[in-house]
């Protein structure tokens, strides 16, 4: 719960000022702001996209989590929800969309297909999991995950964001930031990620 | 009709046990098709597909044709040697064969002479091999059929091999291939448009909508050639969600395919189950008990209501009324989806129909909930939607007279469902060749003659009302009794033969062509996907209109990518 409040509980405040004044650290206010204004990209691949739309609609209402609006353009979004089966034919486009998003950016693998290929894993045109090409922050199980599961995944993502620090975040540093776009040849041709590309684990410190 | 007497040379009856139809010599195919269409009145080409009979070393291409007046259809089959598979194209007689023949070329490598634009359709140019051939193996290949052997026998990993991308390894050497860059697509678009505009020294503009575009309802792409704002030519590009449904379906056991049909048109999973179990039940020669028949009808019609509500909401979304009408539609959908969850345990992927019945019975409380929904809630809500939208000035301006598909063209392009019925053809499989217990209810086929986006919207509205009417009657007549014939089986015995099961899905005629060899797995499993074939007429609807209307037309065809690309 300590992550929820803006005030840093380690800093003592006089009783009469509690709840009125917040004394906090850069990291805390920075993550507090980012965590509560994540804009997902309006990008659905398959069945899971229907549940993603239902999560946005009035019954479940994703806006309660600060995910106010879904943007169709990658330039204006912070979160890429991979909602559905990733096919080889679609992979170059997905990687290009990811590269076009501004940092800091996050990826959620929604559902069995995006996490590991799901029921279509052995298909000749199916990429067994988006993590073969993109770094993933949160995996959500289910086929398709219910809206409640997606909301839980979004709350997990908020925890990931809260645990980051601007001092160690990779997006203020030099280094390769773009993922090479795979190409369609006799099969999908994927170049390996650059050697010093930040791993998912490192991104969360 | 006896085709054998009409063409004594080169047409013979298919005598294999469990099979029916005619085997036609490939040189006679155009003549036979011409006769069927012009003289015998088989004006509707339902499905074209290939079968790879590897042991006999031949490909068979199977055509299913029907009369829109109703009644049973005809099946014609053409054989080609596997070594040199070439057939005459039927696009000049049945233009609706265009995309289906391209699909056969893509997946089987059968060439069609005289096809106007024979390119790959689901995969990309340069892909190695034709995946539905029985001797082609995918990179993650494990075994010919499921169930696969234990993956961890004696504690050691036994596949699948970790080579999802690299097949064949040597062909992927640097410089050994060229990346697909859409040159063939753009050349085809310009060729068909016939030269550039000359009067003002202007140029055509190539615009790609998608595959990431909020109005394409998923990962679908439209390549449009524009003269200013006017669409000169247009081609749908698909395959971005090609999940290898048919190849996986041929590895699966027969019951193992039921959950995969859920994922075809993921809004209407129960309707998809219906078509597949009908096909396999025809092969097995069984029928479900009465109660199961009625429950199937009730669930399939609820599915239709959900699908049409969704489609109407998102058509308005495409017209620019961003999300508000969709919210009204989704609110009603959630109520129906709750019933699906109570009945089947899942909101979307219901996996509920079985061969000879249903997975389980439904309780009295759920029946009461369905009754309350269709008697009290839905009729009023549909009227409300009607009152807000139908007379709306902007809806009329954007929809009426837009995306015209005349009656003859709609038939020729094998359009199905609301697209066909809005063009003045009262063709509905539930009336034309009634399956299950649809012949016991009183209802009308929704049909209108406007041929435009507006009438497709109105036909969907009418169909929701008719579905409510059917569900009311079915609930009243719902008998008691078992919901499964015999014992539920994990491994049903399916006798050898072929079957084509078709139902009127919400998007149109949904057909399943299944070939069994008596083994636990289907030899061939093909889906006649209405959203895929309805797109054949899309260029016709959009040509001459403005580019903004392309979005409205696409919304009115109502595609679901899981079914389009399979």
End-to-end C-alpha gap of chain A: 19 Å
β-sheet strand percentage of chain B = 15-25%
In round numbers, the mean pLDDT of chain A is 84
Total individual domains of chain A: 2
Give unreliable regions of chain B as ranges: none
Instruction: Report the largest inter-chain contact.
Output: A-B, 45 and 55 residues
Task: Give the proportion of residues in helices of chain B.
Answer: 25-40%
* Tally of individual domains of chain B: 3
Q: Indicate the CATH class of the largest domain in chain B.
A: Mainly Alpha
The residue-averaged pLDDT of chain B reads 87
Number of strands of chain B: 15
Q: Can you list the strand order of the major beta sheet of chain B?
A: 1-2-5-4-3
What is the CATH top level name of the largest domain in chain A? Alpha Beta
Count of helical stretches of chain A: 6
Largest sheet of chain A: 3 strands, parallel
What's the assembly state of these chains?
heterodimer
Q: Could you give the count of β-strands of chain A?
A: 5
- Unreliable spans of chain A: none
CATH architecture of the largest domain in chain A: 3-Layer(aba) Sandwich
Give an overview of the whole structure:
The complex is a heterodimer of chains A (205) and B (566). Chain A has 205 residues and is an alpha/beta fold. Chain A folds into 2 domains: 1-35, no CATH class; 39-203, Rossmann fold (3-Layer(aba) Sandwich). Helix content of chain A is 27%, strand content 8%. Chain A is built from 6 helices and 5 strands, in the order H-H-E-H-E-H-E-H-E-E-H. Chain A has helices spanning 26-35, 47-56, 91-100, 111-116, 147-162, 200-203, and strands at residues 79-83, 106-110, 138-140, 183-184, 188-189. In chain A, the strands form 2 sheets. Chain A has a 3-stranded parallel β-sheet with strand order 1-2-3. In chain A, helix 1 (26-35) packs antiparallel against helix 5 and helix 2 crosses helix 5. Chain A starts with 25 loop residues before the first helix and ends with a helix. The model of chain A has no long low-confidence stretch (mean pLDDT 84). Chain B has 566 residues and is an alpha+beta fold. Chain B folds into 3 domains: 3-113, Beta Polymerase, domain 2; 183-237, no CATH class; 245-565, Orthogonal Bundle (Cytochrome-c3 Hydrogenase, chain B), CATH 1.10.645. In chain B, 38% of the residues lie in helices and 16% in strands. In chain B, the strands form 5 sheets. Chain B has a 5-stranded mixed β-sheet, covered by helices on one side. In chain B, strands 8-9-10 form a 3-stranded antiparallel β-sheet. In chain B, strand 1 and strand 2 form a beta hairpin. The two termini of chain B are 34 Å apart.
